[in-house]
Amino acid sequence: MTSPLPRRLLPVTVASGALIALALTGCVAESAQPSPSGSSSSARPTASATAGTTPSGSAPAEPGASPTATPTGDPAACLPGTWTMGQGDLESFYADVNAALSGAGVSFTPQGTATLALGADGAFVWTPALQLDAAVSGTTINVSVAGDITGTYTATADHITTTDQSADGLQISATIDGAETDAGDVVNQVAGAPITDAAYTCAGDTLTLVSDVGGASATAVLHRG
Questions:
Q1: 148 in a domain, yes or no?
Q2: Cα-Cα-Cα-Cα dihedral of 183, 100, 224, 187, to 10°?
Q3: Is residue 160 part of a domain?
Q4: pLDDT above 90: percentage of residues in the chain
Q5: Residue 68 domain flag
Q6: How many CA atoms lie within 13 A of 7 on its CB side?
Q7: Residue ranges in the chain assigned as alpha helix (H)
Q8: Smallest Cα–Cα separation from 81: which of 121, 47, 28?
Q9: 92 in a domain, yes or no?
Q10: Number of domain units in the chain
């Protein structure tokens, strides 16, 4: 079942809530297409020659020699797999966020990890295990995010986008000075996978996603495995 994330505002000032939402815009998962351009079939390299054949003008292949593989040339073929953001990766991403909002009186301190599984069929699962302290105008909001968000994605040679998502499996709590509060829009932002309308590069075991945060770039680096 596909369900929208809640859209209630936090019971703090409207200005504070708007700043938090702006700061975390790069993390929301919004749109999807059925499958990425790099499908499971294109993820495998193709052989340029087979053992025992002799291309025109070249020397015969040695018996038992392995064929030479030719890369597909499709950057999206690198995407399928399981990708992880560790503590250092989260700190680096939120350092970009904090720099983008340096004059707004907002800062974020993350702790934890997050995992992004991208399927060759266009499905994704985002699994955060995250504590995020958002300091806004002297008030600290403590948000705990666990569980998962599922959905679909599409990718071009340098861009990845999501549409469908279900937050039914997401587990969230938020407090201000130890008292429970409605996480509202803060959770909408921090809980989403960082693949909403993001530019990407993917090489080997490193996936780099660049999103816009308040007119500046915030870079999320994930590692395969």
A1: yes
A2: 10
A3: yes
A4: 38
A5: no
A6: 2
A7: 14-23, 87-100, 184-190
A8: 121
A9: yes
A10: 1
Q: What is the pLDDT of residue 45?
A: 33
Strand partners, 176: 141, 179
Distance CA 59, CA 53 (A): 10
Asked if residue 23 lies in contact with residue 142, where contact means CB atoms within 8 angstroms, the answer is no
Q: CA nearest 25: which of 129, 91, 97?
A: 97
pLDDT, tens only, 116-156: 999 999 999 999 999 989 887 888 989 899 999 999 999 99
Q: In Å, what is the CA distance from 164 to each residue of 14, 23, 33, 35, 67?
A: 28, 23, 8, 12, 41
User: Rounded to whole angstroms, how far apart are CA atoms 114 and 10?
Assistant: 24
Percent of the chain with pLDDT over 70: 64
Q: Which domain holds residue 123?
A: 14-37+75-224
Strands (DSSP E) found in the chain: 46-47, 69-70, 81-85, 106-118, 123-136, 139-147, 149-155, 159-166, 170-176, 179-180, 198-203, 206-213, 216-224
Place of tokens 């340098």: 158
CA pair distance 97, 107, nearest whole angstrom? 8
142 in Cβ contact with 60 (< 8 Å) = no
